[in-house]
Amino acid sequence: MTPTQSPICLIYAGGTFGSHGTPLSALPAEIFLPILSNLYGTTDHHIKILNNQIIKDSSLMTPSDFVGFYELILTAYHDGYRKFVLITGTDTLSFLAAFLAHAFDEFTDLSLVITGSMQPLLLPQCADLSINYDSDAWNNLSQSLDLAAAQCGTFVHFHHQSFNAKHTQKINSQAPNAFMGADAIFNKSSPPSINTAIYLNQLPSLIKRAKSVKIRSVYALPNDPNALADELLVAADACAVILIGYGAGNLPKSQAIIDALAKLTDRGVAIICTTMCAYGGTNTDYAAGAWQYEHGIWASGSLTIPSIYGQILWLSITQKLTAWHWKSS
């Protein structure tokens, strides 16, 4: 089936955008979406609501939820839809966006915009569910609808800025300009040489693997190096470890840490080093950072932590978590 008016499929997944009350919690779709429809009904866009069962605070999102959104969008794509806007919470928005960007990397005629808000669309303490016209919610959504209608690619749109969905991070817990990232790259639409039936047939395996996948993080602190080695060993049950170092990815060097890295790599655990700094990424300029890459650690370059997580998750559930695929993704 091919839609005749090229509608934009809207997915409501909760988050601050659709929250109400004190403390804030996401409203059910049957309450929130009719209110929202009164707003987007004033636009020039033809909106189709996709039936989504994953509505929650984004801090509760799991790999299975991420795959659930992938399944929802993939199924609609198979049915002929090409334009999507996903409203979710900001806490894990960048993680989800990076995952979906990798998942739909080959879908060159798809437009997917992930957005949210720092303030609810509705006045939190108003019993009649009145619109909060000072909120950033409607501006973020209306601009996301415009972006989905005009451009192809996978994007994060927030506070008048469009980002490459593979590379964003929330850097402010309060301000409306809460995200930073790489600028969006707008591509011309071109028919992809893919068979969506193949992707749909892979879904049961992806869903199964998402239930058991485990990605851990280890955060460097100025403790005895043995403490860092111990934390690495605890992470040996994971498919991958995000190792968060200082500065340009610098880490203390000790025999205990080298031995721990060897044990993890021998078990097939991918270890990706990044930095706790918001800007600049990692490099090998310092001896304190360069040594680790001789012991099986993969470089993350300028990728943010959510970007790394999203890429790891997609590669893991598709059984492509190798150094070669990491570098080429």
UniProtKB/TrEMBL annotation:
Binding-site list for substrate: 58, 90-91
InterPro entries found in the cross-reference section: Asp/glu_Ase-like_sf (IPR036152), Asparaginase/glutaminase-like (IPR006034), Asparaginase_C (IPR040919), L-asparaginase_C (IPR027473), L-asparaginase_I (IPR041725), L-asparaginase_N (IPR027474), L-asparaginase_N_sf (IPR037152)
Domain called Asparaginase/glutaminase C-terminal: residue spans: 215-309
GO molecular function, one term: asparaginase activity
PROSITE patterns xref list: ASN_GLN_ASE_3
CDD domains, per database record: L-asparaginase_I
Lineage: Bacteria, Pseudomonadati, Pseudomonadota, Gammaproteobacteria, Moraxellales
Source organism superkingdom: Bacteria
Pfam families: Asparaginase, Asparaginase_C
Gene3D superfamilies for this protein: 3.40.50.40, L-asparaginase, N-terminal domain
Origin species: Moraxella catarrhalis
Active-site residues, record numbering mapped to chain: 16 (o-isoaspartyl threonine intermediate)
L-asparaginase N-terminal domain mapped to chain residues: 8-181
Name of this chain's protein: Asparaginase family protein
